């Protein structure tokens, strides 16, 4: 196979394992520094880009209006937002590095072909903190591949790396299968940007228990953690918890893999959420959705059969971004319960009890309004309005895993740490090392921040090593 021979015959300056945002940022930086770069993307070309294909935005620090971002979003506020969702489970040095560097990244992204648009209505007040990609993540990925091609970066698709050869702390080659044919590719440095292990259901089940087999994987089916596992087996230091992940509540009718952003449901703050027994189990109005959507996957995962149901009435149905699937609809709560296969008497009782607990106040859908329930557990602390105006709507919720947080430990230069200290010429970026910063929880747009910042650092550092 000629392409495979051509790749094996030469020694590359920088081999990049992975083909998503972090990998592309690394490849572009290394190529701009004059390196001969090869990207090994495990997916076929139409599915290139990993989870980056499904992203929408980038969370960015800025001192004043910047591109499409309004007002300002300073380092300390950004860090406080991160501490809130991670409950302090973060490496502060790396977190602040990602936050501070994000401000320079946005103009760099624009200079490399990424276009931004003002945030859409229904995305819950992100115009100050998050820059939205025009055309979504797929447009960003395509822009970066075009830029990489212009810089002479080589790309191999369907290139599944099976082993990273590291001897005495030094990378020598990767073993891979390209379109099913085995080959060995030598390089002077390697950047590992191949994502988490969420598409390996057996690994998820070992970490979480058998309930994980009911999870849906909203991200790419190609992130099976092969490179991560290979490095850990060779003594690379790990960071993060295998049971922590970016898991959101998604539409229960979504496909097993690759449903992406369109399967996410943003209705929770304006609904009540019940389990299979038609009982509420958590405060649906705890905080604005961008800070809280990522806890709901875990909450639903803890319910019987890993399923829950969001119940809404007609006054709230237009307050959130619609899902790709229409909700079940009925004129009475009893009829809705039957459609959702919930016990009708129990759901009616839960709704009646909730409605009776709703107090007086002014409803503000886009900000915390302290419109709270009184005298029921769990309380709903914001946006608590009676579910009383037919027709009534229901969505089935299941946990949708985006990426896992177990990863490789890196320093502030993105270099990977091993049992004997730092590897000489091995760097990592993106989801494969994000667990350093995301110990738990998630902040909208922050995965792209980590990938962009550490991808760029890894590319610069690998190039400096080679040169």
UniProtKB/TrEMBL annotation:
InterPro entries: CobZ, FAD-dep_OxRdtase_2_FAD-bd, FAD-oxidoreductase_2, FAD/NAD-bd_sf, Succ_DH/fumarate_Rdtase_cat_sf. It comes from the Bacteria. Keywords: FAD, Flavoprotein, Oxidoreductase. Its cofactor is FAD. Signal peptide: none annotated. Residues 13-439 form the FAD-dependent oxidoreductase 2 FAD-binding domain. This is FAD-dependent tricarballylate dehydrogenase TcuA. It comes from Fodinicurvata halophila.
């Amino acid at each position: 196979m000629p392409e495979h021979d051509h790749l094996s015959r030469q020694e590359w300056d920088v081999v990049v394992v992975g083909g998503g945002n972090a990998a592309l940022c690394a490849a572009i930086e290394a190529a701009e520094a004059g390196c001969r770069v090869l990207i090994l993307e495990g997916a076929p070309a139409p599915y290139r880009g990993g989870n980056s294909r499904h992203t929408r935005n980038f969370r960015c620090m800025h001192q004043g209006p910047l591109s499409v971002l309004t007002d300002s979003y300073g380092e300390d506020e950004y860090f406080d937002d991160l501490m809130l969702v991670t409950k302090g489970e973060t490496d502060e040095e790396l977190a602040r590095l990602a936050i501070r560097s994000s401000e320079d990244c946005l103009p760099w992204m624009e200079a490399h072909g990424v276009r931004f648009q003002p945030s859409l209505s229904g995305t819950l007040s992100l115009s100050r903190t998050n820059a939205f990609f025009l055309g979504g993540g797929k447009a960003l990925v395509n822009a970066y591949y075009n830029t990489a091609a212009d810089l002479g970066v080589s790309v191999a698709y369907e290139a599944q790396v099976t082993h990273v050869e590291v001897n005495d702390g030094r990378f020598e080659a990767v073993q891979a299968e390209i379109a099913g044919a085995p080959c060995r590719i030598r390089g002077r440095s390697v950047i590992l940007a191949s994502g988490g292990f969420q598409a390996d259901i057996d690994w998820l089940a070992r970490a979480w228990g058998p309930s994980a087999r009911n999870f849906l994987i909203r991200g790419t089916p190609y992130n099976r953690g092969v490179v991560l596992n290979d490095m850990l087996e060779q003594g690379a230091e790990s960071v993060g918890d295998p049971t922590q992940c970016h898991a959101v509540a998604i539409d229960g009718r979504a496909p097993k893999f690759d449903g992406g952003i369109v399967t996410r449901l943003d209705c929770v703050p304006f609904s009540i959420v019940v389990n299979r027994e038609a009982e509420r189990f958590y405060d649906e109005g705890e905080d604005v959705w961008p800070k809280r959507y990522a806890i709901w996957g875990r909450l639903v995962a803890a319910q019987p059969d890993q399923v829950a149901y969001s119940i809404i009435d007609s006054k709230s149905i237009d307050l959130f971004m619609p899902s790709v699937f229409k909700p079940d609809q009925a004129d009475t709560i009893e009829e809705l319960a039957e459609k959702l296969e919930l016990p009708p008497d129990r759901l009616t009782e839960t709704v009646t009890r909730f409605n009776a607990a709703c107090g007086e106040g002014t409803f503000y859908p886009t900000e915390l309004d302290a419109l709270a329930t009184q005298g029921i557990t769990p309380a709903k602390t914001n946006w608590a309005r009676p579910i009383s105006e037919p027709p009534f709507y229901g969505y089935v919720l299941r946990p949708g895993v985006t990426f896992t947080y177990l990863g490789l430990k890196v320093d502030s230069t993105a270099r990977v740490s091993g049992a004997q200290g730092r590897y000489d010429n091995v760097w990592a970026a993106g989801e494969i090392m994000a667990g350093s910063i995301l110990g738990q929880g998630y902040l909208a747009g922050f995965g792209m921040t980590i990938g962009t910042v550490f991808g760029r650092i890894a590319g610069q550092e690998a190039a400096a090593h080679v040169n």
